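Hello Y.,

Per our agreement to keep a running log of every chain we model this quarter, I'm adding this entry. I've kept the format consistent with earlier entries: sequence first, then predicted structure.
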Amino acid sequence: MLRTAFASTSRAAIASTPRAFHTSPISRTVTERVAEVADKVNKKVGRGLASAIERGEEVTEKTKQTTKKASGMAAEKTKETANVAGQKANQTTAGLKQGTQDFKEDVKKEARK
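Predicted structure for the entry above:
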C-alpha cells in the first residue's frame, strides 16, 4: 500500500510540474547571427552614408573656394580692363584736344597769309 501510494504521488507530482520552454542552441545561434549581421549591415551603411556626407561637404567647400577665387579673379580682370579702357579713353580725349588745337592753329596761320 505504501508502495502504491508513493508511486501514484510521484507520478502525479511529475505530471503536474510544468515543463520549461526549451530552445535549442542552434536556433539561438541563428537568431544571434541574424542580429549580428543586421548590426554589421546597419553600421556599414551608416559609415558609408557618413563618408558620403563628409565628401559632399568637402566638395561643397572646395567649390565655394574655387568660386570665390574665380569671382575675385574676374573682378580683378574687370577692374584692370576698365582701367586700361579709361586710360585709352583719356589718351583719345587728349589726342582729340591736341588735334583740335593744332587744327585751330593751322586755320589761324592760313588766315594770316
